[in-house]
């Protein structure tokens, strides 16, 4: 059991002042596997003061190339500990061990490596001709001291999405781990130190709601980067609005997969299934609304149900498992409520449809496909965050596009067809930040990722992901 009394400040594991604890439960066994400090104002103040001192200290003298080199070393340090990270995150999240190395760890280092590549070519300073004939220098300065708030579903990956642009830009960050998944934070701090990143540039704390809100409200935080639910994101946005504080929000989704009538089911079924089921459906960009054409409705629903029903699920340490448990008892109960709501509204579970207590322990759910879903049902409107797909019938492509866009969210989407030109034309009419064609991918590591509507504000990844961590300064020089 990992009972840790420390937080990571000034590149050291220091004893927390907090006496309250956060208990960590293995979702497959329901056993306590560790605990960490539940940091309050005193510990948050220490971390913010450290990041403020670092921002005003040696870190400000580092050149962009030096920062990029440090970012690359950070990625390498994580890669060297890949199995350790994967084992801890499997125990915390319940991600099957076969996916943890790639989805939870190497995807994170790919993000860092992509940010390093983008940062080497980023226009940190530009010169242009002024309107009155003078020269103007456009400087991209670091935004300052940042708060990074990470969710539990892919915690290391989301941390990399925030730390990459922080390190590239010359900003600093207090990174707060999710209450459900804080144990890997200790390893992450060790990687920061091994990379030779100066003291205080990245501090890592563990906290629940009180400490998290205190961090967001802290007067010395210049920017908040938050990933999580739309409800919590609205609170973060409100606080930042009150304080005229910069923020980036990557929030929820209720993404639609538009399956066209010419689809080659044999070619795409595996990817179509995993577009909604990856990480046991606990992904913000999961394609959980499957839009099915009238002309092939029964065939597609039957094939989808067979594929989902065949997915092996259970003990995430078993290498034959594709799906694991949900992360917590609270999430388990929540998903169970959605299953009941679906049936009560008239949807039919063509496979699955229930919580699974047959294991005797753990927060397991039967992989589920609902048919007979209409887009006004709760299971089609709200983010379930579990292994539950809803099949919605449509007549024309125009109707499918309308259904896809009839959502409070706009994070991701997909089109499944043999006609890629047709797919691109349809994608341009879908109001989401990313649209994939015949792919389970919800993002591209080198391209901007973020949402329309209630799916968030701002973008991560690519040069568009660095820009929110900069402030733009114009220097007006004589002609």
Q: Summarize this, please?
A:
By secondary structure, the protein is of the alpha/beta class.
If you had to describe this structure to a student in words, what would you say it looks like?
- The mean pLDDT is 97.
- This protein is an alpha/beta fold and 479 residues long.
- The chain has helices at 41-55, 64-80, 82-93, 97-121, 155-169, 185-194, 209-217, 230-242, 265-277, 297-309, 329-344, 378-381, 397-405, 420-427, 462-466, and strands spanning 2-3, 6-9, 12-15, 21-25, 32-37, 125-129, 135-142, 145-149, 172-177, 202-206, 223-227, 246-250, 255-259, 287-293, 348-351, 355-356, 364-365, 368-373, 388-394, 409-410, 413-416, 436-437, 452-453, 456-457, 470-477.
- α2 packs antiparallel against α4, α4 (97-121) packs parallel to α5 and α9 (265-277) crosses α10.
- α12 links the parallel β18 (368-373) and β19.
- It contains 15 helices and 25 strands.
- Helices cover 38% and strands 24% of the residues.
- The strands form 7 sheets. The chain has a 7-stranded mixed beta sheet with strand order 15-18-19-14-13-21-22, sandwiched between helices.
- The chain folds into 2 domains: 2-251 and 455-477, Aldehyde Dehydrogenase, Chain A, domain 1, CATH 3.40.605; 255-447, Aldehyde Dehydrogenase, Chain A, domain 2 (3-Layer(aba) Sandwich), CATH 3.40.309.10.
């Amino acid at each position: 059991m990992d009972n840790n009394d420390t937080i990571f400040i000034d590149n050291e594991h220091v004893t927390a002042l907090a006496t309250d604890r956060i208990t960590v439960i293995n979702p497959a066994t329901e056993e306590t596997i560790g605990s960490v400090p539940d940091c309050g104002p005193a510990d948050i103040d220490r971390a913010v003061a450290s990041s403020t001192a670092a921002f005003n200290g040696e870190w400000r003298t580092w050149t962009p190339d030096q920062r990029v080199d440090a970012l690359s070393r950070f990625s390498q340090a994580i890669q060297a500990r890949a199995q350790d990270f994967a084992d801890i995150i499997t125990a915390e999240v319940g991600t099957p061990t076969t996916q943890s190395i790639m989805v939870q760890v190497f995807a994170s280092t790919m993000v860092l490596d992509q940010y390093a590549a983008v940062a080497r070519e980023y226009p940190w300073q530009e010169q242009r001709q002024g309107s009155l004939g003078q020269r103007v220098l456009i400087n991209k300065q670091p935004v300052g001291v940042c708060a990074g708030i990470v969710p539990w579903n892919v915690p290391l990956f989301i941390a990399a999405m925030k730390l990459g642009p922080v390190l590239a830009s010359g900003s600093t960050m207090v990174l707060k781990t999710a209450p459900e998944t804080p144990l890997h934070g200790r390893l992450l701090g060790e990687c920061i130190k091994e990379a030779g990143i100066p003291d205080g540039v990245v501090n890592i704390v563990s906290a629940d709601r009180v400490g998290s809100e205190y961090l967001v409200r802290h007067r010395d935080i210049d920017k908040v980067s938050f990933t999580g639910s739309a409800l919590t994101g609205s609170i973060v946005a409100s606080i930042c609005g009150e304080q005229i504080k910069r923020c980036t929000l990557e929030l929820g989704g209720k993404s639609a997969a538009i399956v066209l009538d010419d689809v080659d089911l044999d070619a795409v079924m595996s990817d179509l299934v995993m577009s909604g089921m990856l990480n046991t459906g606990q992904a913000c960009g999961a394609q959980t609304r499957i839009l099915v054409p009238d002309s092939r409705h029964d065939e597609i629903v039957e094939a989808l149900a067979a594929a989902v029903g065949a997915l092996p699920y259970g003990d995430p340490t078993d290498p034959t498992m594709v799906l694991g448990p949900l992360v917590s008892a609270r999430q388990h109960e929540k998903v169970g409520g959605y299953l009941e709501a679906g049936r009560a509204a008239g949807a039919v579970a063509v496979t699955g449809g229930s919580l699974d207590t047959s294991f005797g322990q753990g927060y397991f759910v039967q992989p589920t496909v609902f048919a007979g879903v209409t887009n006004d049902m709760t299971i089609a409107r709200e983010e379930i965050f579990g292994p539950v797909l809803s099949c919605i019938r449509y007549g024309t492509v125009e109707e499918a596009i309308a259904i896809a866009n009839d959502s409070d969210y706009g994070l991701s989407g997909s089109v499944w067809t043999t006609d890629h030109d047709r797919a691109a034309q349809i994608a341009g009419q879908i109001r989401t930040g990313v649209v994939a064609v015949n792919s389970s991918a919800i993002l591209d590591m080198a391209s901007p990722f973020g949402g329309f509507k209630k799916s968030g504000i701002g973008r991560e990844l690519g040069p568009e992901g660095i820009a929110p961590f900069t402030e733009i300064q114009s220097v007006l020089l004589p002609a």
